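Action item from last meeting closed. Structure (392 res):
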């Protein structure tokens, strides 16, 4: 602390005040003007800004740059109070350490920002009110917005109402529980693209220990989800025809045993002369015949019926809540469809042997399938006999 007279000369200063400016004893400054402790640039600032404010308000507090005895400068915090008669009470504090700490903090913050920006995972952070206060480049690319369009805005300003409500509710729960939350969700970006994602969110605390907001990272699992969907499809469908496969057909039969959709009818179909087509025209022609069979079968049945390819040339259909009479009507429709599909020679392109049976309850399902299969083979035998009797 120091006391200056009306001319700005030191009347009193303590040892701490002298030491701040690099003097060994307060006596070195007694009678000298305070102006010797600042360089020309800082004196101009005092004359143009600080002293007029002190005279007008009677007090001034702020930061300045002091000049030590050895000619070095240092940042300082000054508190000036005007006295009656023109004197001034001056309190000075060296803030070099604080400035260094602030600079170190700024450098660290810049490093962290640069580090976060190089991470390819989308990262964001919001304050306690849900406003975005920062994000990395990956987050900007992910939601198709620039940092200027993101920072300072809330979820309601960036996403649909439904998404925003979900995000905000989740953030509130995270801040209240002060716990990390890992949650699978979807994210629709500004360009309308939909992503399947996993959110990793956690609350961050202020220096006082209160929750400052939420920080989060996003893992895009869209490709994984698509792969899972494809794998599920492949595990239940026949690759060539797109129909359900034998494994799924067996699962559905098992499920229906305890169902309430009886009577259940089963239709079995077998492609006639497929081996002959494969041998004479090649397997590509045989594949086309199987695809045509699939189209005919799908076109003949309801959406709730399960059409499957259960073998090389064999197809089966499960018809819930279908009587034997209704199943036989479907078979007749299939026969009419086949008769209408003619080749260049005017003959039917596709021939199917068909059989059907009906189960009144779950215990009769396997038996009905077996019976439908037997009837299909009887139909095939009858067709072959008829074909031999009519060689034309």
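Sequence:
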């Amino acid at each position: 602390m120091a006391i200056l007279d009306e001319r700005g000369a030191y009347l009193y200063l303590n040892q701490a005040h002298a030491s701040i400016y690099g003097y060994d004893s307060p006596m070195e400054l007694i009678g000298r003007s305070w102006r010797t402790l600042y360089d020309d640039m800082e004196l101009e600032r005092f004359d143009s800004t600080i002293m007029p404010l002190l005279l007008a308000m009677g007090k001034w507090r702020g930061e300045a740059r002091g000049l030590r005895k050895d000619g070095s400068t240092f940042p300082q915090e000054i508190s000036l109070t005007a006295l009656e008669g023109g004197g001034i009470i001056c309190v000075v504090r060296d803030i070099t350490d604080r400035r260094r700490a602030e600079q170190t903090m700024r450098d660290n913050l810049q490093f962290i920002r640069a580090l976060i920006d190089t991470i390819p995972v989308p990262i964001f952070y919001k304050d306690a009110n849900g406003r975005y206060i920062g994000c990395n480049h990956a987050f900007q690319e992910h939601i198709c917005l620039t940092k200027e369009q993101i920072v300072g805005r809330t979820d309601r300003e960036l996403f649909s109402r439904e998404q925003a409500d979900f995000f905000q509710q989740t953030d509130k729960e995270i801040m209240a529980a002060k716990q990390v939350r890992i949650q699978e969700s979807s994210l629709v970006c500004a360009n309308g693209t939909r992503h399947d994602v996993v959110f990793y969110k956690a609350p961050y605390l202020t220096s006082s220990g209160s929750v400052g907001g939420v920080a989060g990272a996003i893992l895009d699992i869209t490709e994984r989800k698509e792969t899972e969907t494809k794998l599920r499809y492949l595990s239940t469908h026949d690759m060539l025809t797109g129909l359900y496969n034998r494994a799924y057909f067996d699962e559905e039969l098992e499920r229906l045993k305890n169902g309430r959709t009886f009577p259940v009818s089963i239709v079995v179909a077998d492609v006639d002369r497929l081996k002959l087509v494969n041998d004479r025209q090649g397997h590509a022609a045989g594949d086309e015949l199987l695809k045509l069979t699939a189209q005919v079968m799908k076109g003949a049945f309801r959406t709730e019926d399960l059409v499957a390819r259960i073998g090389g040339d064999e197809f089966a259909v499960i018809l819930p809540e279908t009587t034997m009479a209704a199943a036989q009507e479907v078979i007749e429709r299939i026969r009419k469809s086949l008769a209408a599909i003619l080749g260049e020679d005017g003959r039917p392109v596709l021939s199917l042997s068909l059989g059907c049976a009906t189960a009144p309850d779950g215990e009769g399902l396997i038996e009905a399938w077996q019976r439908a299969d037997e009837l299909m083979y009887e139909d095939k035998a009858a067709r072959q006999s008829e074909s031999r009797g009519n060689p034309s």
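Note appended to the action item: The chain is about 45% helix and 25% strand.
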